[in-house]
Backbone:
């Protein structure tokens, strides 16, 4: 009896449900960004924006769960995404420390949003889905523009910087998740 010694070839890619996982996570974080941006608005607008953020997120999660059957599995390279997440966490911690050190805490939200946007480049490379590329570009643009807006001290009680960052990032994430309903594997 001879033993057949075949080498096992490991692939760095796993199969995952591209639509449900990524889009649902995007909706949840979109809700969080929306609520964060809504808290920068004056009453009654902040209550309306918080309610809308929650409502939009619920509708999208339900729509994504109903559309689950049309999806096909996609590629996910966990190592690539893991590296992107590690860089994201390190960059966020370093940015928080540096902005507080230099007395620029008003830039925290757009800076963190920009870093989160960059992490979508890693998700794009990990999945080959172009939706993550435009998500990265859109979030970075929103946060880059928001960084130059006035803060609450300059125009009363509305922090335009925080409102635009939060609500803008929420809209980007919701749009990306909604796009997966139209083109699940794009």
Residues:
């Amino acid at each position: 009896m001879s033993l057949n010694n075949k080498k096992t070839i490991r692939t760095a890619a796993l199969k995952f449900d591209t639509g449900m996982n990524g889009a649902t996570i995007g909706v949840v974080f979109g809700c969080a960004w929306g609520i964060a941006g809504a808290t920068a608005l004056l009453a009654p607008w902040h209550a309306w924006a918080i309610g809308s953020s929650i409502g939009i997120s619920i509708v999208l999660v339900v729509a994504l769960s109903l559309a689950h059957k049309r999806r096909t599995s996609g590629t996910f390279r966990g190592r690539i995404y893991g590296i992107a997440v590690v860089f994201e966490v390190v960059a966020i911690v370093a940015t928080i420390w540096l902005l507080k050190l230099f007395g620029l805490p008003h830039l925290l939200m757009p800076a963190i949003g920009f870093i989160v946007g960059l992490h979508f480049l890693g998700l794009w490379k990990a999945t080959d889905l172009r939706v993550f590329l435009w998500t990265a570009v859109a979030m970075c643009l929103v946060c880059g523009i928001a960084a130059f807006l006035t803060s609450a001290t300059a125009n009363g009680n509305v922090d335009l910087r925080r409102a635009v960052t939060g609500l803008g990032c929420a809209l980007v994430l919701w749009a990306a998740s909604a796009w997966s309903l139209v083109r699940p594997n794009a």
